[in-house]
Write a structure and sequence with these properties.
By secondary structure, the protein is an alpha/beta fold. It has 2 domains: about 400 residues, Rossmann fold; about 100 residues, GMP Synthetase, Chain A, domain 3. It contains 18 helices and 28 strands. The strands form 6 sheets. It has a 9-stranded mixed β-sheet with strand order 2-1-11-10-12-13-14-15-16, with helices on both faces. The structure holds adenosine-5'-triphosphate and magnesium ion. Adenosine-5'-triphosphate binds next to strand 14, strand 22 and strand 23.
Length: about 600
Amino acid sequence: MEVIRKTEVDLRVPPNFDDYVATRESFSWARMADGLAMPGGGCNIAYCAVDRYVGGPTGTKTALRFLGDTGPDGNITARDVSYDELATLARRFTNVLRRLGIGKGDTMFVVSPRIPELYAGVLGALRNGTVVSPLFSAFGPEPIAMRVQLGGGSVLLTTSSLYRRKIAKMREEMPTLRHVLLVDESGAPTDIPGTEDLRALMADASDDAEITETTADDPALLHFTSGTTGTPKGAVHVHGAVTTHYTTGLYALDLHPDDTFWCTADPGWVTGTSYGIIAPLLHGVTSIIDPADFDAERWYRILEQQDVSVWYTAPTAIRMLMKAGGELAHKFPRPQLRFIASVGEPLNPEAVIWGRDVLGLPIHDNWWQTETGGIMIANTPAFDIKPGSMGRPLPGIDAVLVRHNPDHSVTVIDTPGEEGELALRVGWPSMFRAYLNNEERYRKCFVDDLYLSGDLAKRDEDGYFWFVGRADDVIKSAGHLIGPFEVENVLMEHPAVAEAAVIGKPDPIVGEVVKAFVTLRRGYEFDDKLRRELLGHARKKLGAAVAPKEIDYAAHLPHTRSGKIMRRLLKARELGLPEGDISTLESGS
Ligand code: ATP
Ligand code: MG
């Protein structure tokens, strides 16, 4: 198997595996947390992200660069907000909340495109001890109302047009909501009854606002899971998570203060908050914020024009870039780009190698979940990449594979190559502390001191973890357990296939048969010949027992807004069953 050797750059990560292991062994969360504590004790994410820089050298640096439209000359307009400006806006926002009587332990929901007020609002609320729950602004009225209701939101930050389109008519469904703060997209004042004009309140507010006393155990964020396997769960995170955000920014993303970092995720998904807001600020880097939807040419332009050095994106985006072709990639040089990472879905080996060959850098896959709050397993810049592997556990993370026993206990698997459920030993600071209103579901995630992730994986003799599939998606066919990822990878090796999704279809004889759906790359058409070719290709690589029996063409595969393929929806549609909770489905899927 091909191994991609480590990159030679100035690394924060120990540059060889032995040193890496030594770092892991001497690593201490307590020491990391000490370095982030507030001067008088206590812990607050926003203190670490903005307050501590005020008046220092980082204060004048650009914290956030908001991109605008592309001009006729091809240049994208930008608006910079410095660390000091962001801190001032956050303090004003804290005062706005205080004036409205919103305090520690209240919950603020955010339904907003990526505008400065969103970032100031999140940080200002965290400073106030107010729990923040960012939602996708593309959600429809029901998913928004349902989440606000579930979370008992007291305040909602949104824009005038989103309010008119999605929230006004649902207001009665959200009885806990005491205040709605509106930003008008055009910059004009707003006076919609039952709402407040945030910009006017901010202009009136004082610049001074002491930070509310919070500890590492106080709740800070409420994130809903992607809803890939069922109804989204609300995961509660605490201020102490900041230690994970900082540590993973260091070891998994290799952030240096002079980096320009672009995380493409929306803050409505945990990645867009942990790494789209918090981690880059903790490292004093400049973040690129692009509010526009995916567009291959625009993305290449951003990488080029903004001198992005570290880029964090998702497999679907990479596959869409692959679909758009290499020619476009070569049109825009990227001399500053030194590190690319990906998360959210299994990253097929083809995509890693395409990165190396076409973008000039391999793509570093990493694994984590809403529940873990931050990156847990990663291909760091320090060691060789095995394409198709999620990498190794980061310092401070004890990841194991377990086998379930009939008496509900689990046994840790020691043998390399054996498949099991991926579990994490409790003790990392960003572990979720509850599923909202679902204590029983939360309890079920733990056995002894292990958190069970619901994902199946294997570990090889070098300590690399390989994703097999979600426990819910595993297909049982004629006595074989088939991980969808393995089958999808093989299909994506074929030059015609852009993306593949595999499901199990009930079958009276073998239990389930493997059925695949594929989208195609440019220049290919789906016909019987291609179908036969794909079936043959899969059978040759996987053997008859594992290869799909059926392959269908799909113009698009259904994705969640966080970019994951919703296999359960493909299955429901295939079997003519109810679609279930599709609140997180991307429109047009
Ligand atoms: P739900 O829990 O509501 O079904 P979800 O699990 O998709 O949704 P997230 O927390 O956003 O919600 O996603 C985490 C999951 O995404 C992981 O459990 C895993 O299945 C998948 N995932 C994330 N990163 C990777 C990766 N690098 N390789 C493979 N799978 C990944
Ligand atoms: Mg999940």
